[in-house]
């Protein structure tokens, strides 16, 4: 198996004082579902945007199918990697059909219209995401869960082997969260897609993802090394099977909280407990 | 709503174009002086005497109707572009300072009492054109410094530059003398007096070429109006499209403003009205808005001409007075179809 996407010692900072990622180094094999987790500000979204080619890292690089990501160009990347961002309502009232069709924009003919092939891809994406019945509805009239399915449909219509998602289930209720993950899992299974999702929900990620990347926040302020790097004995991230990475002690270290954990079946679940939680004094909790 | 097909687009554009021609002809025949078409068809000379009807229609009315149509088309289509690029339904062609820049240029030309001409034109239009483009360039530059992808920085730069230049306009107006004051205020409120056919052809050709070029950016504008990153991740070269669209619409707005002064409301309400009736797809929104903007301004200018004849109202007063209530009616009638971001 060859790595479809390889992240080579990537470091990124937004300004001289604000390092976000340091020495991130991992590879993803084709058909893997990877969760990117970590506290706010640890760089989940930044890493997703770097892998989508939108941000350029100050050092390190990304290899897509063995070639530097930058050498593909905007359009070349878009043929291989689709990006789904957090659900939102666009400023203008486009319909579901119009929104999903936008994925085919770079392939329109010289008059700016889609081909039959484009239309077929769109209809297939609508069906896969169960949004075909909403095709003529305005995006703003849908529920958040439906709207997120439409954005996933737009990414599917892009017809790429790799799907990146930036917190796809934020703001969704439990039913929609599970619905989105079931959908992603079926896309992974049916289309052999490689899926990378930044997420806050460790329990859902444990249940659905094969692997996990946990980001720890970088030290800021005076202790931070000038070049934004971390001490060599403590890398900023860990990557591996979800069951290893989402071990309770690792989550406590990354998020700086206490967690209660248990087992559902093969996978663990974690429950964060603050000091004033009802069961905060339960015997057996780590302190 | 049915998805747009080339056939639907072509049909609707053709109907709108025919409607525009009909409106232009009708408006050219209306006025304080009755014009007989039969007299016009007899040609420029009626026997030995020059035909008054022919003179009025061909030398006064038709140039004026043509000017109104092209200014209306330019303002409405650049309204469409600015709303898409700024992802803001409240944007209009003047939001980034074109109006105050043009106004300042025009007032400087009036106050300094320049008497030279270029191609037989007074320097007012040229100063206004330079002022408009210079201001847009300034605002765009500030916007790029404050954050390349941050629309808020660009909008704030526009607001601040607009406010500063408006203050300078007020200052210059308050020290202007009687005759200058009248000329300035008349210009600021917008007027449609252009008899030089050469200027009409050049301006009209520039505006038409700009609108046609913008049409081909329609699909990219759709995804850019959803989001900068969305566009980039589906494979659109966002920076290139944005810069092209911005430059073209700034140019056609500057042409329109320097020919006719500041006419408000067209660039804001026409794109909205068309969007409410036909949906937000820019491939259709742009051609239909430019034709609707032309119709709207031709009618508004005709009203401005006849309502207090033989005197004339500034056309900007008319566009605001009919535009406002008409837009409210549309908003109430169709708002259930559109969903505003919360």
What are its keywords?
heterodimer, A: 287 residues, alpha/beta, Rossmann fold, 6-stranded mixed beta sheet, 4-stranded antiparallel beta sheet, 9 helices, 12 strands, 25% strand, B: 342 residues, mainly alpha, ABC transporter involved in vitamin B12 uptake, BtuC, two-stranded antiparallel ribbon, 14 helices, 2 strands
Concise overview:
Chain A contains 9 helices and 12 strands. With 287 residues, chain A is an alpha/beta fold.
CATH architecture of the largest domain in chain A: 3-Layer(aba) Sandwich
Q: Kindly state the mean pLDDT of chain B as a whole number?
A: 86
The count of strands of chain B amounts to: 2
Treating each run of at least 4 consecutive H or I residues as one helix, how many helices of chain A? 9
Main interface pair?
A: A-B, 39 and 39 residues
Mind describing the biggest β-sheet of chain A?
Answer: 6 strands, mixed
The largest sheet of chain A has its strands arranged as: 6-7-8-3-9-10
Large-scale geometry of chain A: globular
Subunit arrangement of the protein: heterodimer
How much helix, percentage-wise, in residues of chain B? over 70%
Domain module count of chain B:
1
Radius of gyration of chain B: 21 Å
Helix content of chain A: 25-40%
What is the beta-strand fraction of chain B? under 5%
CATH superfamily of the largest domain in chain A: P-loop containing nucleotide triphosphate hydrolases
Just give the CATH class of the largest domain in chain A: Alpha Beta
Tell me how many strands of chain A there are: 12
Order of helices and strands of chain B: HHEEHHHHHHHHHHHH
- The proportion of strand residues of chain A reads 15-25%
Structural class of chain B: mainly alpha
Uncertain runs of chain A are none
